[in-house]
Amino acid sequence: MTVTLGALIDALERAYPPALAESWDAVGLVCGDPDDPVDTALVCVDVTEAVVDEALRLGAQLIVAHHPLLLRGVESVAASTPKGRLIHRLIRGGCALYSAHTNADKVRGGVSDALADVLGVQHTVPLAPEPVVPLDKWVVMVPEGSAEQVSEAMFRAGAGALGEYRNCQWSVVGTGQFLPVDAARPAIGALGELTLVDEERIEMVAPRGRRSAVLAALRGAHPYEEPAFDVFAQVALDSDIGLGRVGRLAAPMSLAEFTDHAARVLPRAPWGIRTAGDPQATVQVVAVCGGAGDSLIDAATAAGADVYLTADLRHHVVDEALRAGSPALIDAGHWATEFPWCTTVVELLADHGCTAAVFAPSTDPFTVVPERR
């Protein structure tokens, strides 16, 4: 079965929404024509010469990488530059390149979930949850016969959307009353007469950025000269996405045992795993973050973790964190902590009709470790 690159990009962006990427990040399609067919893909952490060699050897039409090839400022992709040479090889070989980076770090089923799953960390929640984008809640009183026209106008203005659902509202019928005075021009009732009307109370949500548009739609469709409505700003709540994960092991073990466990189940970079902490300390609550995660040490501490496993930990950062009461800290290597995600991408692509393989050799740049004497 052959699928187009565009269809695979749609699937990848549903799984790893680009809007979740950090502002400094560079995710998405680097090269390739969305109309081209794809039947074979290669998934990797880093785009290296060896990865491109393997993709072209396989006849792959797509590489999905975690790390963007063109993350830092690039003024040229000439074939005389290291990155440009790779781009030219891919284009000549008919192979597209797509990256999912910090967006894949944050989502459910992303990098840190894959890492937690391999380690056996269960019942996880984000270590640094992203807040849900706050919405407004609109409550509008409308005479029964006009409720539908007001709702439809507000929907068209952007109200009533919840996730993948549209035209969402709740309503109940009650009795409204008003007394028109002075220069009022009531649509129902008469000046000086108390009027009772069967009204629907309509409730729906809308993005805060659509306030003006929703209000204009409400006023334009409402039969009353002065519609009765309320707008409530929701508080920001934590979502189920964000950087890192924290959860529990099925059974406690010592820090030394957990370190050995991590070394067994994670792919091993040449220089292995480093742990800072009491080897006999009990470990059950585990925090993880694929890739460089020293910025989340405080979050791991606040979450009550017994150990925090991540990568690229620095001497002084670790020393100061332990002195301040942080959990035990494990540096398992940047490539090794992100590599488990590659398998989930292979499964995603397979679900959408594309045969995919993982580039298994380590792309960790640190490759030479002296033998101990």
UniProtKB/TrEMBL annotation:
Binding site for a divalent metal cation: 66-67, 105, 334, 338
Source organism (scientific name): Gordonia hirsuta DSM 44140 = NBRC 16056
GO cellular-component term (any): cytoplasm
Family: Belongs to the GTP cyclohydrolase I type 2/NIF3 family.
GO molecular function, one term: metal ion binding
Entry keyword set: Metal-binding
Domain of life: Bacteria
Assembly description: Homohexamer.
Protein name: GTP cyclohydrolase 1 type 2 homolog
